[in-house]
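Task 17 of the worksheet. Students: predict the tertiary structure of the chain below and write it out as structure tokens. Keep your answer in the requested format; marks are given for formatting as well as content.
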Amino acid sequence: MRQFPLLLLLAACSADTAKTVEATDSSDEGSADGSGAADTGADATADAAADADAATEGSGSGEPVLTEEERLRALLDPAPCVVAEPLSWSPLPSMEAFAGERRYSPLSAVSIASAVPFLFATPEHTALLADRRARRATALESCGVDIDCLRTGLSWSVEESDRLVAIVAPAQAAVASLRNEALATGYPFGLAVPPEESFLAELVSLQVYLQNQAISRAVGEADPAAIAPALAEVAGSAATVDADSGLVTAALLRAAGRDEAFRYGPDASFENQAAIDAIASIDFAAYPYTAILVPGQGPTDDTTALNPAGINRINTAVARWRAGLAPLLLVSGGHVHPDKTPFCEAIEMRRYLIDTLGIPASAIVVDPYARHTTTNIRNAARILQGVGVPMDRPILVTSDILQLAGIAFGLAPRCEEELGYVPWQSLERLDSTDVCAVLTPDSQRLDRGDSLDP
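Model answer:
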């Protein structure tokens, strides 16, 4: 995690002082002299009656006593984030469009073969598939543990990429179908989808580029001795060069322990199905926010499933959920700290929410992919749109004072640097642990520089 300047944190703390005093829970009991000890008998009855009168008639100062729900709703009013003209989101098809591992673009952002199968029965395709396999076999036999040699031999060559472009070039009739599928599986080109006349060539070039990036990373991190056995398991099992390359890329990523981006399926539906089933009947207009995003805080060892700091974030967010600020809790975080940890932040947070706090699964959405604060927010847009949450209204982001100061005061330039855009239309700090945000469809852009981008 990046460190933010101390002055920013001090400014965040001092700016919150008045709000924190106002927001202090009035249910605290006791005093310095111990006079807050529990009353008994008639005194307790009289005090209870007085409390009831105060709750209905107001305090001695004439100010009404707020319930916890009323206090949080007043403190966390979404008005600062509401935009007059929300950006337009391209609609996604049904959840069936997110199938298998296709949501992970380096494997197959768009399956070319599924739309133009007739092209993959040609002699040109058969020859390309055979040549790709032969070049891989040569590399595995001759490279040994030479990482650079393996990277070159297992990746697509420029000549192979050009041959694939030539194979698919005549398939203009399939362009409309492929373009629609491209949009449905995560805007692999970003918001500027190529025109029909160049779509197939750019799609192939993008696929090759992404797979080569993923192969290069996997080969660099895998035990060289594990590469040949991993590829032997998928050798000859695919009928098209498109599917063959996807299987090879996936096998190499698994051998390197870098399959996080597709380990949980395209939308973590195995964890999110209860929420998906419930979302259709939610009246989102009845809530100030559509969801409460809780970024994970990974442990620093391989034996701790859930960091205590992450538990604190969850507890803070649940207080807001119980106050009716949003119908959904979105827990976000992957296998991050330490690197390749067996514990997924989002999965462990979901388990704590259900097993310890009794939150129903239908109120929890999981993002098991995010690796940074930037991708916590970017992925929130992807996941929420994918499960059917309306995207024209604010979400609440709840964390701890340190991360929230970073989000409010330093995250925008970091997003520009790392993602190439800011993934929100508006974002405003509400207090020391919460910001509101209206997300943008820019978040559907594929991150070409991150081979772990889902």
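Marker's comment: Strands lie at 292-295, 329-332, 364-367, 395-398, 424-431, 434-439. The two ends are 20 Å apart (CA to CA).
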